[in-house]
Design a protein that fits this description.
Layout: H1 2-22, H2 24-30, H3 40-63, H4 66-89, H5 94-116
Helix pairs in contact: 1-2, 1-3, 1-5, 2-3, 3-4, 4-5
């Protein structure tokens, strides 16, 4: 059962990452990020929101090791922690932060509980 959940969560990670990797303009819009005169923001979306999570998910599936899945969990802990800090300091739209942060926190907890417990 743990293998099925790990695989499902890794595929979710890849799926979410593909949005940033393949459709950075859509992802930026969904995250309320405004375009500038530079295309560097699209590059950042493809890299940090996209490729990072696509390759992390693929690597975990390929390695099929609890530590690989746990590392994705730690990455999601970082993302969820950043959302909490943003709520305190930046005052972003609360509902969006809670939805995205909730998904990140749920994936973090799932990966870490299943693979470090």
């Amino acid at each position: 059962m743990i293998d099925i959940i790990n695989t499902f969560c890794a595929l979710l990670t890849i799926g979410f990452g593909l949005f940033g990797f393949v459709a950075p303009r859509y992802t930026a819009s969904a995250l309320d990020l405004e375009p500038t005169k530079s295309t560097m923001g699209l590059s950042e979306m493809r890299a940090s929101v996209g490729g990072l999570f696509v390759v992390a998910g693929l690597a975990a599936l390929w390695l099929d090791d609890p530590v690989a899945y746990a590392m994705i969990g730690f990455a999601f802990v970082g993302a969820a922690t950043g959302r909490v800090l943003s709520l305190i300091l930046d005052k972003p739209p609360v509902v969006k932060v809670l939805v995205f942060g909730g998904i990140e926190a749920a994936l973090a907890a799932t990966f870490l509980i299943l693979n470090l417990g």
